[in-house]
Amino acid sequence: MHTAKELHVIFGTGPVGFSLAEELLARGKQVRLVNRSGKGAVPRGAELVAGDISSLAVARELSEGAAVIYNATHAPYEQWPEVLPRLQENMIESAATHGATLVVIDNLYLYGETHGQPMTEAMAHRATSRKGRLRAELMWGYLQAHQVGKARVVIGRAADFFGPRALNSSLGQYVFPAALSQQPVLVLGNIDLPHSYSYMPDIARSLIILGERNEAHGKEWLLPVAPVISTREVIQLIEQELGYPLHLFSVPSVGFAHEQGIFDQAFAEEYSELFYQYTEPQIVDSSAFEQAFGLHATPLKEALATTICWYQTR
């Protein structure tokens, strides 16, 4: 186990980076957050540093002294092929230089279309999108660095995010603000299919465990999700919490979303290959993580209540 005042360096100040910092600070850790501008909201007590980590020298310098490095970076879809491999290389090199553990947050794209089969760590990677294939290649590279003894690396895989600060999600800015102002709530694809969602504080807690536990390293883990229900049932839980019915605005396809001005042209072009996620069941089986580390997802009702409260105070 790590000592209390050790340094944890988080690359990326989006919802994952912020939630990680909050959770680490609550545990008495020293936290450095890094983004390009050095500006933005961070939890009180965290250090925020500007740095372009597409430069190896900068990534190395800013991760000096770290016990754990977290890759919580984000880039627009169209920049992925150019940006993500470079960030991967720089993160691995930085972890190797400083003897730090590298924790990487990832998504479900590399599985491709599952036709409703529950996703597990043993499931074959059959990506049906360019982005999924790139994610699979990156994951191989990360785990290979661990395999050959270059750096300690572990990957945590989350489903669609929701929770405080998780705006850019299918269960985010299109749902909660509209629900609170009694406007139509935008929902993607077939909402009567089962769909797993990851609660942001659960993601943060899980990634910290992966950084701490030696037996986690060198593997990919599906992070805890609540027992799966349909998106319609999730909306019904939100209705119960708010005490009134919601009007739904259904988006059957990316083309429709573009026509309605919801997605711009660039995003629609990139996202069309991923929309299968909302036209087939998306079921995550996180039992391996839960059994190994004893952490379970926050019950959905409680997680949604906390999320609604955050949006109300925002």
TrEMBL record:
Any Pfam family hit: Epimerase
Annotated TM spans: none
Domain of life: Bacteria
Annotated SUPFAM superfamilies: NAD(P)-binding Rossmann-fold domains
UniProt cross-references to InterPro entries, sorted A to Z: Epimerase_deHydtase (IPR001509), NAD(P)-bd_dom_sf (IPR036291)
Gene3D superfamilies noted in UniProt: NAD(P)-binding Rossmann-like Domain
Residue stretches making up the NAD-dependent epimerase/dehydratase domain: 12-218
Protein name, per record: Nucleoside-diphosphate-sugar epimerase
Organism: Thermosporothrix hazakensis
